[in-house]
Design a protein that fits this description.
This protein is of the alpha/beta class. It has one domain: 3-Layer(aba) Sandwich (Rossmann fold), CATH 3.40.50.2300. The chain contains 5 helices and 5 strands.
Length: about 140
């Protein structure tokens, strides 16, 4: 599977910049990147994409700690949306609290919990896993 779009939902400009650099460095990861600084902005944009009949991003990297609407609140709202193609959501957080990791796995839509920072090796492994899932 070729990943067309990745959505980053994170309020940390350094993380966003670094992730975009990694994704652009290895062009085989995706074609475009959408960035939202908080969950509410992301919900509004993704909901409007659904209403216009547009394809949602293939992958969402979701931070937990953000202003306005945090990652947990985003997930609680996102699972209520009428989705035909469900994006792969990866929580990407600096939290190493086992309760956060356990809570993340209670959401069927969450594929994995990744501890920041992202690296080229982590992204390569993640995309290899996605390719293997699509072949199976």
């Amino acid at each position: 599977m070729k990943i067309d779009t990745i959505c980053i939902i994170d309020d940390d400009p350094i993380f966003v910049y670094g992730t975009k650099v990694l994704l652009n460095y290895n062009c085989s990861f995706c074609t475009s990147v959408i960035v939202h600084e908080d969950g509410q902005e992301a919900m509004e944009n993704l909901t409007s994409m659904i209403n216009r009949g547009e394809k949602l991003p293939d992958v969402i990297f979701l931070d937990l700690n953000m202003p306005i609407m945090d990652g947990w609140e985003f997930l609680d709202e996102f699972v209520k949306l009428p989705l035909e193609n469900i994006p792969r959501i990866y929580i990407v957080s600096s939290s190493i609290d086992s309760r956060d990791i356990e809570k993340a796995h209670t959401y069927d839509i969450v594929k994995d919990f990744i501890v920041k920072p992202l690296s080229d090796a982590v992204l390569s492994d993640l995309f290899k896993t996605i390719e293997q899932e699509d072949v199976a």
